[in-house]
Amino acid sequence: MIGLGTYGYTAPTPKKINAYDVPEGVDIRGRFDEEFSKILTKDALQFVADLQREFRNHVKYAMECRKEAKIRYNQGALPGFDPATRYIREGQWNCAPVPPAVADRRVEITGPVERKMIINALNSGAKVFMDAVDGTITFHDKARNRVYKLNDQIAKLFVRPRGWHLPEPHILIDGEPATGCLVDFSLYFYHNFATFRKTQGEGFGPFFYLPKMENSREAKIWNSVFERAEKMAGIEKGSIRATVLIETLPAVFQMDEILYELRDHSVGLNCGRWDYIFSYVKTFQGHPDRLLPDRVQVGMAQHFMKSYSDLLIRTCHRRGVHAMGGMAAQIPIRDDPAANEAAFDLVRKDKLREVKAGHDGTWAAHPGLIQACMEVFTNNMGNAPNQIQTVKREDAVNITEEDLLQRPRGVRTMEGLRLNTRVGIQYLAAWLTGSGSVPLYNLMEDAATAEISRVQNWQWLKYGVELDGDGLGVKVNHDLFWRVVEEEMGRIEREVGKDKFKKGMYKEACKIFTRQCTAPSLDDFLTLDAYNHIVVHYPRGMSKI
């Protein structure tokens, strides 16, 4: 899987764009150079504008519904199964058959849009990352005098556009920012639909991962977008196929409904476990009786997490699609063989739990983990491409709302507070310079794990949590928090070195992170605020070449 996104740019000398370069009502306020002009063509931007105009009111309404749900949860309500859609959950229906091209998804790898990393991921041996469409992507590393290119057999592409909540402020449609995921989807689909047309009916996609949804209403919008795109391209209905990341707490109660809305376009659901934990805290931000323990203790062994995984497997297999597992955060440790073996052992145990539970595949964050993950799934699945027909998990029919909401068990410690602070600041510093995933303390940290750090700090501060362990009896307050921040910034400087610390954006990251941790109300997403620090807007009619 490859995630799409937009970052800020350093502004060179501006140059005028002729009015005919963009469709009427479209305004490019971001960097627009010769390379970008191959993507931001007039026809491609017209497709972006068409989708934006057709679906923007639906998206706005969906976001308003999120706000209303947030108010209800903050007033004490709990998420749960919707009585109005019981007929869908209990009905006898199936999604469209899984295309043979992606029947086997036992190991998938995810990563950022950087040419060398894309090529390495495609060549990693994973079943899914991205199908290079034309197969022409290359990268010449001049520093190492090495050319990276694709092998004969590569992983399949699953493109992950942004969530519905993220705007694209560099592209204005009729005076307002375009919806980020519609920009991502439109540009990718438009520039490749000729290839999709050649392979239609053969089950070669295109394939997508859809993130951050909270209910079936949002899935229905995606289904309409897919149908509109298929009609524009002249390809068969159902050619576009998508896997939905179940990574918000409200969505776990709508898994049947989400699949139902996407039943002609679905190939499954995925346990986005780290975002799911973040969503648990965010959903219950107004519930002082639901405070999480240290984040390192919130794993798949927790009852609410196991219940989520088991119900996802039953739901997907009942409807004939993949139930994908989550990502183990460990990465190879090259300079410490003993620590490396311990990390691989944790990965193997996690993947063994997944395959025995009935998952059809899993995620890896690093090419070095592919073989270990593949061996676990192959040893337990044999030559079968998946477990859709063999593991039905009928025992999960008894999973209740209470199971999915059970309070996590564990302790809250001073080291937990310190780790949250240290990881959150370092991740954000990397994000501000364009890195969406960062190896820290032998784990791959991404926005989801940084979000857990942020919201947990906020929650502990808001409710004055009394710490256990090394901080026994100490209450988390602003004085303690600021002392921890100062000490952890010192530790970060020692660990990364003074030169890197000085040149990096650690101080800027610290300001953003601590402001969000101490804010009276919890921001919905860390990156929404941080995004404002990297966006570069240019005057109308100007570009950068």
SSE blueprint and pairings:
Elements lengths: L1 E2 L10 E3 L9 E3 L5 H4 L4 H33 L11 H5 L16 E3 L5 H8 L5 E2 L8 E4 L4 E4 L6 E5 L6 E7 L2 E4 H19 L8 E4 L5 H18 L7 E6 L2 H4 L2 H7 L4 E6 L1 H11 L19 H17 L2 E6 L9 H21 L3 E4 L5 H12 L19 H5 L8 H19 L4 E4 L2 E4 H17 L14 H19 L1 H6 L2 H12 L8 H6 L10 E3 L1
Parallel strand pairs: 1-8, 4-15, 5-8, 8-11, 11-12, 12-13, 13-14, 14-15
Antiparallel strand pairs: 2-18, 3-9, 6-7, 9-10, 16-17
Helix pairs in contact: 2-5, 2-6, 6-8, 9-15, 11-12, 14-15, 14-16, 14-18, 15-18
Quick structural overview:
The strands form 5 sheets. Strands 1, 4, 5, 8, 11, 12, 13, 14 and 15 form a 9-stranded parallel sheet that branches. Strands 3-9-10 form a 3-stranded antiparallel sheet. Strands 2-18 form a two-stranded antiparallel sheet. β14, α11 and β15 form a beta-alpha-beta unit.
